[in-house]
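Example (one chain per record):
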Amino acid sequence: MIIEPKIRGYVCVTSHPIGCAQHVREQIEAARAAAPLPHPPRRVLVVGSSTGYGLAARIVAAFGAGAETFGVFYERAPSNGRPASPGYYNALAFEEEAAAVGLPAGSLNGDAFSDDVKDQVMDRLEKEMGPVDLVIYSLAAPRRNDPRTGETYKSVLKPIGQSFRGKTVDTDKNQVQEVAIEPANQEEIEATVKVMGGEDWERWISALADRGLLAPGFRTAAFSYLGPEVTWPIYRDGTIGRAKEDLDRAVEALNERYRELGGEAVVAVNKAVVTQASSAIPVVPLYVAVLFRVMKEKGLHEGCVEQMIRLFGEKLSAEGSLPVEEDGRVHLDDREMREDVQEEVRRLWPLLHSDNLEELTDYAGYRREFLRLFGFEVDGVDYREDVDPEKALVGGSAW
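Predicted structure:
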């Protein structure tokens, strides 16, 4: 079949297996170009490893640092001629590329929030890898079932305390529009923290510790974002921001609990990029389109893999304690938040409307990166080629 992009709102409901694989290879080449990274980890577990920053972290750990890796993700397989989710093809491609060069790489496709999946991962680690010295936590999910209570929580993207009105971009119509969002109630706030906060991260580290699968001096990092003032009402000061604050609580708890093991937990604040998660957040896609233009003009632009190369090469490789800033976090958003960058974003923001969207932003670049998440508009792929979505890639150990 000929697979074409079909966009519904902020998601593409199709994916291209060959394009996804080629996108993974591009990131692998970037990681190889940065190798060897200093003080590399030996064994790395990535929870949420099939897309975005989690995928990039696994790629850099393996192909930039030469580490054994194990990835956990929850992706849809192809069926009845319907393509799989892009993360499924990404994970397959990663395993194939790792196997081709002899890099040990295990994967498990399942609900990372569940105790059963945690147990399966621990069993696999005991048999295949041994204790890990780095755990990356990069889950982005709309809901979570707590296996200990049986309750299902759903996250929301809402402001707190007051309604929000602001600019966003309708990616279906390619128009700048005003969005109005009512504030979250307390139940919605608490549910979002349950889904996107630090509780499950703590459970993963606890499960690893209970099975003796944390190496002495291990490190663990969870990803977050702060962003500029224009995004604060819906992000930093909203429900998702409240959940991200809970990661800071988890850091303190983890550092206290595993001090004797020499363990260290940290929140890594990354820059704004195009991911499946970020494309769903009102205001953020328009901001990213402006940011792309400004950072590209200044020669500062980075994608997920470039950010992870810096995380591994500049932060996680540090001797002694991790190099945190005054707020206790590791920052990779330093170039995005440079005053000259944000000053230009602030200048352009009030000028934006539908008629000058292409002129004043890099909306074309945003759209291209969005499509690349699903395997489209990737260089070197013939999209006129007939593809079988179930046989385009050879299966790995998780399938």
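Caption: The mean pLDDT is 95.
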